[in-house]
Amino acid sequence: MLASVALAGCGSIGSENATDGAVQAAAVDGAIEKPNLKLGFIKLTDMAPLAIAKEKGFFAEEGLNVTLEPQANWKVLLDGVIGGQLDGAHMLAGQPIAATIGYGTKADLIAPLSLDLNGNAITVSNKVWAEIKPTLPVEGGKIKHPISASVLKPVVAKWQSQGKPFKMGMVFPVSTHNYELRYWLAAGGLNPGFYTDGDVGGTVGADVQLSVTPPPQMPATMEAGTIDGYCVGEPWNQAAVQKKIGVPIITDDEIWHNNPEKVLGLRKEFADQNPATTAALIRAIIKAQHWLDAEGGKNRPEAVKILAQPNYVGADEAVIAASMTGKFTFEPGDTRDAPGFNIFFDKFAGYPYYSDAIWYLTQMRRWGQISADHDDQWYFDRAKAIYRPDLYLAAAKKLVADGAIPAGAVPETDGFRGEQSGFIDGISFDGKQPNAYLAKFPIGLKKGQTVTAAGVK
């Protein structure tokens, strides 16, 4: 009842040997070791694969009895997985990466499956929107998108002259939202600040002050004036529209086209000790992802009803549907087609690419969470330890053999995406050249630079 887990090319992964061959599936044999599982989640629409796997019987089909438990915030969720109170969780992609490299909390976590692509947006308060809207170009009677963060520079400068900082919220220091917000601000010429050792604020040299707010509390925190905008997943941008307290200014797909988002996070020890259970868990979630994207999203209305239940997201159906069914509303009267706003299965959304992990690591270094330089091999080795396409392939290939998903939905790859464009600043990303990528940014740490409270040196 043990697994023999083998990854192609057991040596290090790098630009010289990363293309030697496709990642091989782990070999998993035996009966499920732990049929009763508890998984954590945060009340966001991108937890949908877990809810669908539960409600549509995919967990049960795989012999699993799964309890889904909402968590108060990302820190509580992370601690629950590390401490064993949760067997796994809907997790920020940066959380297993940060834990494994020892940023914040040290623990060996893995990500054997990516839950989705896209799904976030940046919202500003009505007060901020009123200042910038008159300056924005119009196309076809509507504001032209994407909107650069450069439009905020006059507002930030004016407020600073009045002694008032410009403040924005994100959900966690190692969240996708933090890095997307920082990326957007920096692309527009605004410095979002740097982290020093032991500093979770990351405000050294900042033009815009960023702070942590749990996702469901974002609208109320902005309405109270504590923050002037935020980056969060749905339905909490659409909630601001519904409450008429703010306007989503850009979606994350406009910042980085088809960016990887949440992951299934597990303790490495759990996966090692429960290989058949892990494979069954991944299979059930892949089936849910497939259901969510089937036939152009025909099941999304049903998914909206499920997510609206109080034990899952607990928001109004209309608010969830505003982004989950292929539309996105920026402000009243400006609803646009957004068929790719939430992608769960298509475009190989579930495959945990090494290059995705490397992108997060580069942003941690860019902003000082990784305090010193590392060579490219360091990035490759960390990605290989955390993102586990071998485990994903073990599950996915069985589903292909069983006829549950099409063979073309499983990529044959060395674990790296090709060079990626589609970033708002026009900078391309090659996961096999992390240091060369970091050198491209006008704002961000360069080779040899460190951060102290006094600034970058």
TrEMBL record:
Keywords: Cell inner membrane, Cell membrane, Membrane, Transport. One of its GO terms (cellular component) is endomembrane system. It comes from the Bacteria. Pfam families: NMT1_2. This is Nitrate ABC transporter substrate-binding protein. CDD domains: PBP2_NrtA_CpmA_like. Signal peptide: none annotated. Its main location: membrane. The lineage of its organism: Bacteria, Pseudomonadati, Pseudomonadota, Alphaproteobacteria, Sphingomonadales. InterPro entries: NrtA/CpmA_ABC-bd_dom (IPR044527). It is found in: Endomembrane system. The keyword Membrane applies.
